Amino acid sequence: MKAVVITSPGDPEVLQLQEVEEPEIKDDEVLIKTEAAALNRGDIYQRQGFYPPPEGASTFPGLECSGIIEAVGENVSRWKVGDKVCALLSGGGYAEKVAVPAGQVLPVPSGVSLSDAASLPEVACTVWSTVFTMSGLCPGETLLIHGGSSGIGTFAIQIAKFKGAKVFVTAGDERKLAFCNDLGADLCINYKTEDFVVRVKEETEGKGVDVILDCVGAAYLQRNLDCLNVDGRLFIIGSISGFVAELNIAAMFAKRLSIQAAALRTRSVEEKASIVKEVEKNVWPAIMSGKVKPVVPQRFPLGEAAEAHRLMESGNHIGKILLIA
């Protein structure tokens, strides 16, 4: 089969489509003939040499995919050959076939194309596990999403609105902000021309938001705490601005704030299966109702993975980017 290989750590051109051995499945795994794979920021970090796959995982990039099941392991009972599925991966999505634990597989939701389904597992599992399970966002509360036009952001807007929350977002240009507004965001802040802390305080009568989903990291740490409400929760899922920050913890004491951070890829197979189960129960109905939709404006052939990475790194995209196998 063909797969995108990271020939050495570096710039996008190190991604090369090569002929490789087909994966062998274990007793609790399925083999998926890939229809599409979606890009994630972790793929870029892996390509650069900063985010190696977990032990035993495929060395090819790709944290989510969709396709048709081609084979099932001896211990797999739910899935059968021919099923149309999407899956959360530890790696290997940038390939014509991928082996994945059966517990990380989801059915393609009705109303979603097989290729577009590749854009769902990583964002759905990330948003559900962070915003809802760990941060406990409730109906009537307010969620602030940094990077509202990203794959994570566009999904989080929709599912948070579906669950009855108010949603604020930040983004870097008016085109992206308009897109977020169309998805249902209640307040769209241009972080390049406005101070998001000031705007949040204005819109909440000085109280602040209840939950923040942050991909920026160090540069926003203190400012995030400054715009949280009493009992507010900050969840950090990325750190594009760096990992080291100075923090005045006085606000944490005064407002009983909490800070959490997590990466999905490094969780155990059992933890991932549990999250996937919760996502199918709580998120898939919203997708099948049409209230939450994939946002996939850009698609590239598998052999153009380098160009797809360049687009993601440019920051000019909205939503998810797909590679079509």
Automatic annotation (TrEMBL):
Record GO terms (molecular function): NADPH binding; oxidoreductase activity, acting on NAD(P)H
Gene3D superfamilies: Medium-chain alcohol dehydrogenases, catalytic domain (3.90.180.10), NAD(P)-binding Rossmann-like Domain (3.40.50.720)
Enoyl reductase (ER) domain span: 10-323
Record keywords: NADP, Oxidoreductase
Short name of any one Pfam family annotated for the protein: ADH_zinc_N
NCBIfam families registered for this protein in UniProt: quinone_pig3
Full protein name: Enoyl reductase (ER) domain-containing protein
Native organism: Gossypium laxum
